[in-house]
């Protein structure tokens, strides 16, 4: 079966949306490395024109260290292999994926065998218009595009395990097993009513009209649209705009894909650096996820306190394991209509890691190998102090809020000389409050992500001879978390931060 998976990919044409994203890059590299005889990979890239798309392909994919192993493995054949990559300027938020060339669209509809939709905007508090356009309407446009592909064998959609995590500041109450179940069209997490994406779009348009009438600045528009997204998410039970719009995207795909298009969902948890392939410890140097930001600020001596329950499980999974699961799901579901399933890919059920575990590992790592500051001096770190409730966090902030008030008064007394200091501290306090509110549902989250379908997939392919240890590994039980973070992830994180 292992050879069958590799052979299945031979002479296939694959469309990848969100092609410059972290997960998509690792997917593209793996496909080319294990099956250089793939026919073509259309890579949808947000770009103004073909030349811009080509430039992004080289700058954001091929020139990355991620592709060094591929470059070394295929040596003189490398250029002929990467010629299989066809960058397409487009945008999932537009009809026909923003592909304006009719002849090209016709070629894609005729040739595409597999679509991998990894396009997403992942900011928790993204502008509502952008998040809805990409995560929700983008899924609709991908589904409509897939239906028009004459030889489509598989549509794989990348979602997030957190679509079923409730919000409304009740994260500390969220316990139990979160199932690999589908959404009904219009379903809300708290039963608040029917969720209609067209009504949500209308709300955005009405707000935009109101803002333009007030001659609002771009900054004011952005803030208003971010606030609207958070308000709508919490109204319907989600903690943030990202999870709301990703959930709507799932609903739309289930509704729009016809029975002849095999459809599967991958719901990864928090994706971290590569565990093994193409080499250990690779991650993007342009953005960092929640635990990465915590580790960076802690290592640099800028984080003394941590908001969260030490026993809260932080569900992480290396990116190469997610990619392996994606490839296996594609091979298993291709050409099998009505075999639609959801696969949650994470570690909380089989091999849980707690916040206490990871903070202890970080403390040990940065004590043994301190971060070197701008002056060439090692940064001394101490064990993080936990704030186990929002009340304790707010009490901690009171001294800083009081200080901002004092600075404001002092600034007026001294003719505005302290205005800059006051504004800076006020901004930091507001940012800390906003971040705490955004992450509270996760900091006190006690749920575990069910992986029954994912485990059944592992068992099925193992019985059929797939190499789950070397080639298509995606079982988190093989990970030694302390070794992974100290030897692989944190060194990769420091390296990525220093490349920024």
Can you tell me about this structure?
49% of the residues lie in helices and 11% in strands. By secondary structure, it is α/β, with parallel strands linked by helices. The strands form four sheets. It has a seven-stranded parallel β-sheet with strand order 3-2-1-4-5-7-11, sandwiched between helices. It has a two-stranded parallel ribbon with strand order 6-13. α2 links the parallel β1 and β2. The longest helix has 25 residues. About 1% of the residues have low confidence.
Key structural traits:
500 residues, alpha/beta, seven-stranded parallel beta sheet, two-stranded parallel ribbon, 17 helices
Q: What is the topology?
A:
Blueprint (H helix, E strand, L loop, with lengths): L1 H8 L3 E5 L4 H13 L5 E6 L4 H13 L5 H7 L3 H5 L2 E5 L12 H10 L2 E4 L10 H20 L6 E5 L16 E4 L18 H17 L4 H18 L5 H16 L6 E6 L1 E3 L17 H10 L5 E3 L8 E3 H15 L7 E5 L9 H14 L16 E3 L2 H24 L5 H25 L2 E4 L2 H12 L17 H19 L1
Parallel strand pairs: 1-2, 1-4, 2-3, 4-5, 5-7, 6-13, 7-11, 8-10, 9-12
Q: Structural class of the helices, strands and pairings? A: alpha/beta
Overall, the morphology is globular
Approximate helicity band: 40-55%
Quote the beta fraction. 5-15%
Model regions low in confidence, pLDDT < 50 over at least 5 residues: 169-173
Question: Major sheet: order of its strands?
Answer: 3-2-1-4-5-7-11
Intertermini distance: 41 Å
Report the count of strand segments.
Answer: 13
Biggest β-sheet, characterized? Answer: 7 strands, parallel
Arithmetic mean pLDDT = 89
